Amino acid sequence: MENTGFLSKDIEKYKENHRTKNERIFQLCETLNRYSHSLMWKIKVTNEYLPEILFACAYVRVMSNFQSIIILAEYGLINEAKIILRSLVEGMFLIVAITKEKKYSQKIVEQDILDREKTCKAIRRNIIAGIHKLEKPTLYEIEKQIEDIKIEIKEKDIKRINKRDLSIAAGLESYYDTIYHLLSGTVHINPRDLEQYLNLTEERKIREIKWGPDIEEIEDILFASVETMVFVLESISNMFEIKLEEEWASIYAEYKAFGAMV
Q: Which of 82, 155, 169, 239 has the fewest Cβ atoms nearer than 10 Å?
């Protein structure tokens, strides 16, 4: 791995070792993943009902996030798994919020209008700075778009929903203040987070730079992912009136047992 890192063929040996040392949590993740797919095929979505459409699309996203975390954990790419975990938690906020308040889905969709205004303003700055090289839109056209969007925002009284707002709507503010907040350091690369790549002496002198597969937090990251998916799957049951089968009781019992252990 010295010359190619995680792209080395030797990584397969590490993957096998990581799984062997954390067999129970990997097994729980895989069982939960299979069950989440079985529920996906039971979801029935219609064009007329926005909450279901938004929920279903977000569900596909969180399932992909969950699987990505498992794959990254296999490789020992723990920080990369943390970054995806934060995205998974955000998806949980959205799904649970929609389930609790169906009308909230319209507010979520309207956020796109605010994003379009932000994009248009960025294009305007580039045009003024001479960076924008395309013939269209012209400065006049982009100014007109911004003005039209402002009118729409005012007429619909659209307010920006930040991630804390979303977590509050979901009744999961404590998750925002803990796991979501803690993971922001990894996502945005702050100095305290970067310190983990240093192997320090007791006197805090740099001994060496740490690199390569890391398994110290595999259990914590995978369990947090499982817990997040538990909220998501329970929301599916409520949104689409899908009865969670007997297998769910077994999965939930293992989730609680593992949580008590860690």
A: 155
Q: What are the domain boundaries of the chain?
A: 8-261
- Other CB atoms within a 10 A radius of the CB of residue 11 amount to 20
Q: What is the DSSP string of 148-174?
A: HHHHHHHHHT-----HHHHHHHTT-HH
Given 3-state DSSP classes, what are the helix, strand and coil percentages for the chain, each rounded to the nearest 5? Answer: 75, 5, 25
Measuring CA to CA, how many Å separate 76 from each of 208, 209, 233? Answer: 19, 17, 27
16 class by beta-carbon count within 10 Å (0-12 exposed, 13-18 middle, 19+ buried): exposed
Rounded Cα distance between 95 and 85, Å, is 15
Are the beta carbons of 187 and 83 closer than 8 angstroms?
yes
Q: Would you state the structure tokens that stand for residue 148, as one six-digit string? A: 């039209």
Q: Which residues contact 87 (CB under 8 A, 6 or more apart)?
A: 65
Give me the amino acid identity at 160.
Answer: R
pLDDT in single tens digits along all 262 residues of the chain: 667 888 888 888 888 889 999 999 999 999 999 999 999 999 988 888 999 999 999 999 999 999 999 999 999 999 999 999 999 999 999 999 999 999 899 999 999 999 999 999 999 999 998 887 777 788 999 999 999 999 999 999 999 999 999 999 999 999 999 999 989 888 887 777 777 778 888 888 888 887 778 778 899 999 999 999 999 999 999 999 898 888 999 999 999 999 988 7
Residue pair 153/178 in contact by the 8 Å Cβ criterion:
no
CA atoms within 13 A on the CB side of 244: 19
Q: 218-240 and 246-261 helices cross at what angle (nearest 10)? A: 150
